[in-house]
Write a structure and sequence with these properties.
Layout (H helix, E strand, L loop, with lengths): L3 H20 L1 H4 L11 E18 L7 E3 L5 E9 L1 E11 L6 E15 L4 E15 L6 E16 L2 E16 L8 H10 L3 H10 L5 E3 L3 E5 L3 E5 L3 E13 L4 E13 L5 E13 L4 E10 L10 E7 L6 E14 L5 E14 L3 E14 L5 E5 L7 E4 L2 E3 L7 E4 L3 E10 L4 E11 L5 E12 L1
Antiparallel strand pairs: 1-2, 1-3, 1-13, 2-15, 4-5, 5-6, 6-7, 7-8, 9-10, 10-12, 11-12, 12-13, 14-15, 14-26, 16-17, 17-18, 18-19, 19-20, 19-21, 21-22, 23-24, 24-25, 25-26
Length: 449
Amino acid sequence: MTSRSTLLKRAAVALSSAAVVLTGAVVLTGVSADAAIKKAETPFAYQGSAYGTRVTAGDPNSGGVASGRTAWSVLGCTAMAPVRNDKGSNVGKVNANDYIQVGAVDSFTSSYRLPTKKTYGSRSVNKVADIVLGSADGPQLMIGALTTKAHAFNDHGTFRAGTNLSLADLETKDVVPQEAGPLQDLVDAIDAGKDQAATAIIEAAGSDGIAIPGLGTIYMAGKETKRTRATFGMASAYGIRVELENGSRVDIGRAWARIQKANPAGVFAGNAYGYEAVVADGVAGLGRTPYQQLPCPGTKGEWRTNSLAEAPQNAQLNATGLKAQTYGKPDADGSAVARARASVAELTVGGQLEIQGIVGQVNVFQNKDGKVVRRTLEGTRIGAIIANGQTQEIPAPGESITIPGVATITAGDRVELGRRGVLVHALRIEMLDTGLVLNVGTAKAKITR
């Protein structure tokens, strides 16, 4: 265990560093001039994401179970600024988990431009109020508010990035340290009403975290990254990560922002994944497996691939031969092509349903004038559907069949993304007995300006 004196020194350094970040007004404060500036296309591409909570058991990108993200705000790839997206929710228990309760959650993501100051940026902010960690009959850590911020920007041609985390109004119940160390330091800071010092103590604990017997281990900024290069800036932070004694992991306060040089032909957006399972209106499910994103500047006309020979097996779902691919080709004359493709060789669900040769593909074509002229699902197909050993008729694109007692299956489920993009689920499967909703062979592509 880290010694008390060493931890307190590290906490002092963390606290000093936080003060430096807070004094950097351009990094973390709002830009009140946003509202007065007309939205316009810029030379940069912006992205961002912010949400309040997410509960996982295992890696959600490799078949692990995950709750939905609360108050999830997303800034997709765009060259336009200013743009702002706000989300809010009142959560209560997260994923019916007795170890975590959350009050109001507010998130926003935004792009901005200050042309007279030659500053452009992407900001993501999340605020979670009234967090209670731990069961009612055991030790608890209570947080009045957690704010997580990420900011990536370009200032006079140089990319920069910053993050900020803050806790307010910390309390504990039935938390009794057994010896001197990180937990005792944390309790002392909370008892003294020194919220900022408590934040620094948790952060200083680093990868070891602070173990609270009967509750779990708490980590400040489980993942915190700031990167800048000649072509981009990126900031990413999780406010708190808690690995609970009931076996689940809780991420609280997520903010991520990115800015990079945009391609003159446009900004690409999209993704592909083999499958995603959802239960009870998004509360719990299986993560997007495997997942491949389409980068904002495209892929220089090459397919980017993420493949998986076999998805993690469980009693309800087995899949083999999974592949997710994206493609973005900008041309010098202003034309562009965006594609996304997801395929699953074989999928079995619940022991009753077997589907073979699943491919979902979308294709978006832009002419040299910057107009999207075609959006197609060419390449989307289903090889065979077998239920209880009987081969079923494959529905026409956009149509469904119901197999009594088994599932309702929709093929080629197309979703329009305005006039510049399109998404397809090669299959959407709704299991009649369990309520499981499964999106298979999902592909999404868009070209924006």
